[in-house]
Amino acid sequence: MQDETAFLRDVARRLQAISDAKRLQPQIEGALNQLAELQRLVGERGYAAHGASGFLREAADANARLQQFAEALAAAERIIRETAYCLPMLTYQGGETDGDGG
Amino acid sequence: MGTGDELRDRLWRERLVTALRVQLPVELDEAETLAELVLLHGLPPGQDEAPVRSALWRSTGATPEWVEQVMRIIQSVRDGIRLPVPEPDSAQRPALPERQPDEQVPPAINTYAPPEKHSDQELIMTLVLERMRAVNHFQQLAPKVQGAQTNLRTLRIAVSGEADDSVRLPHLLAEWLEARRAWEAENQVLQSAQATLRATEWLIPFLQGPLASR
What we know:
Order of helices and strands of chain B: HHHHHHH
Shape of chain A: elongated
Low-confidence stretches of chain A: none
Oligomer: heterodimer
Strand content of chain A: under 5%
Order of helices and strands of chain A: HHH
């Protein structure tokens, strides 16, 4: 018998991490798209052009958000890996018993 | 819809099916049909219950009392209340009452106790714990039950090979009966563990997560 409290705590951490990872992946994609769009706009106008500094500031902000999302995703993935030991127990299917009492 | 929403909806459905099975009581397929009816008419926790009441009324042709009973169960599941489970001898389901033509749908009456809130997280953990205990039971009991089955089969062969007037026959039969009682007790727990494993299988995809295939 495993230590139920510790096991359940890890299952709860795992569920939270899975939820975080699923939430973060589209946010990261969104931030990447935003960055790509800002880079394109800056590239079109040229770095020295009027208005480019505003895009660059936005790009810096988007980059900072991306960093935060990426760090949070890495933390969630680390927890998911750490708690992978829970899976065999949770996915155990039992087996067929023939129910024949002889 | 996010993972949390999916999990919450699934949890709500499972709890509703279980509550309907136990509280009404009805068979699994009937409980599932009722739960689908409830969900089809949009009763995730916290939403308006009038369409569900009306759908139950129209679809089942049951009496207002029966509809109210189902609504109380739905509300208890939604609010996390545990209603008393019927005694075993009253667990036989009465025939579905017929609605009288002149009966009207009664207004909603809140006669139940204030809700005792449980978070989704607590409920999921309760199910995980049930599954974990079922796994432990299964792992401990499966070899025992298998051994007992082999023993029973051996005894049965021995019994059938004895002549009716054999001195050993009563002894072998008594031994078989004793072995059968032991097998029954352990097999019952094993079957219950197996039922829990099946009933909580739906949790697995949520627990595996996005890294499962890596």
